[in-house]
User: Fold these one by one.
Assistant:
Number 1:
Amino acid sequence: MNKKIIRFLVIVIGVIVIVAAANITMRNLVVSKVIIEINYRSSDHIIVRKDIERLIVSRFGNIDRKKRKEIDVEEIEKYLGSQNMIETANVFLTLTGKLYIKIEQNIPLLRIYCVDGKEFYIDYNAEVCNTRKGRAANVLVVNGDFEEKLEAGKVIDSTREPVTYNVYKIARNLASREILANQIDQIYYSKKDGFELLPKVGDYVISLGGMNDLDKKLNKLVYLYKDGFMKYGWDEYSHIDLQFKNQAICTKK
C-alpha cells in the first residue's frame, strides 16, 4: 500500500480517536458551576436569578455537580425560552465545566388593570406577561373599561383584543416621542369617551378619544409641551382636548 495512503489513514483514524475521546470526556464532564446572567436591557428587574434557579429545579432537579450526559442543555434552553417574561435563553457548557445560562428579559411597555381584577404587563412585542409580587416596573399604568380576557404568554391581536391592542399602539407611540414618554404617566379608557392620558406632573386630563389621526393628535401634544406649556405653564388648565382637527382645545380651571 502506498505510504501516503497509509499516512492519511493513520491521520484519519487518529482524528476519529481524538474526537471520540473528546466526546466521552465532555459527556462525563461534571458541572462545576452554574452561572446565570440576565440582560435587562435598561429595563426594571422583574425576573431575578432565584426565579431562574426555581424554574430549573422544578423541571430538571438540581443540575449542579451532574455530568454533562445527564443534562439536556438544549431542553433547558427550550424550556427557559418558553417561560413568561423571558424573551430569549442561551444555555451552554464550557470545557471547564461551567454551565452558562444567559437570559434576556422581556421589556415591559405598560401595566394594564382589567375589570376582572387581573393585571398584566404588555411588552414591546405585544406579549402579555405576568406581574411579579414585590417587583414593579416603572411603566405606563393603564386602566378603565378593559373587559377583554388576557392570558400570559399570548401576543395581543387587533381582532381578538381590539381595545387592548389600541392601548398598546398608543403606548408605543408615546414611547417613541421622548417628551411624551417623560410626561405621560397613565392611560385611561372608557367606552363612552375613548382614551385619555394623565400626566406625571399637573392636574389635568388629555382627551385622545378614538384612534383616528393618532399621530396628528400626539404631534399636537408634543407641540404643546415644547412651546405652549413652556411659555404659559400647565397649572392653570384642567382639560386638553386633541380630538379637533388642527387644534388643541385647552380649558382653564
Number 2:
Amino acid sequence: MSTAENQFTLIHVVRDVSNLPNYMLQSPEMKRCNIPWRIGYLRDGDTFVTYLMCCQPRTNKDWTVVTKGTSKVILTNGSHSSFPFEFIVANDSQYSTLATGFPLPLSIDDTAIIEIEVIIESVTGIDAPEKIRNFGVEAKEFSDVVLKIDGEKFYVSKMYLATQSTYFNTLLMGKFKEGKKRVVELKDIDPANFQVFLELLYVDKTLTDSNIENVLKLVEMYDAKNAARLCEQYLMFESSHSLRTKLKIAAQYKFKELKTHCLNNIRSRADIRAVKGKNIDNSDESMQLDPSIADDLFELSLRLRS
C-alpha cells in the first residue's frame, strides 16, 4: 500500500449548522484502498457531531481495517478544534462509524469545515480491484516486447507504447539497446500502478481516487500526454477528491483547466478556508500550496468580502 493511498483527508463544508436536523447527513463517497468512506454529521442539542464512516459492505468474508488520524472542525476565520483517534472496523463490528462531538455555537457565519485526516495502518480481507485489461501471457500473441517489473511481465506493443509516450518512443524505437531486446526491465516502479497506467494508455475506465496520484507520477515520468489529459478530465468531472487536493495536483502537474475549474467552484470564504485548511500547529495548509494558487485564493477572498 503506497503512502498516497493509505493517507488521505476527507473535507466537507457544512452551512447553516445551527439548523441542522438531528439525523445524519452525509458527504459524497470517496474510495481509498478499495474501501468507500464518507463524512457524516448532525446536530445533537448543543453539540455538532461529526462521523468518520467506513462504508465497506458487510459480507460473509471476514475483513478488518485499522486506522488512526485526526478529526477537525475548522471555522471560516481559521480557528479550529481537533481530536486524535484510533478506529478499528471489521465485518462483525457493531458500529462502522466513529463519532466526534464539538460544542455549539461554532461561528458567527454558522459555517463549519469538517476535515478528517486518516491513516490506514492495515487492511485484511479486502481484495485489490480487479484488472480491467490483461497484459499477461494471454497477450503474448499481440506483443513484440515484454516489460518486466519486480518479476511481473507485461506483454505489450512497442508501436502503441511509442505513440502514447515519448519516453517509450525513445527507449524502444530509438537507438538504445533496449529497442533490440525482447525483455526490458523497468526498476523502482510498483507493478500494480504500472498495470493501471497501461490500462489508461488503452483508454480503459481505470482511474479512481485511490490510484490517480500514483498513476500521475508514471504519466509524468513517461511523458504520456494523452494519459495526462484523461487524468485532468477525471479530476474535473468524476473525482470526489477535495478542492484542496485537486488544486495541489493542478499546480504539481500544470493542469491549467483543472485549476480554473476548481477556482470557479469556490463561492464562499468557507470554501477558501476548506482549501487553506489549518494544521494542528495552527499554521495554514495553504503554505504548502503553489504560490500562484495562494495568490488566486487571496484575490478571491478580497472579492468575496466586497
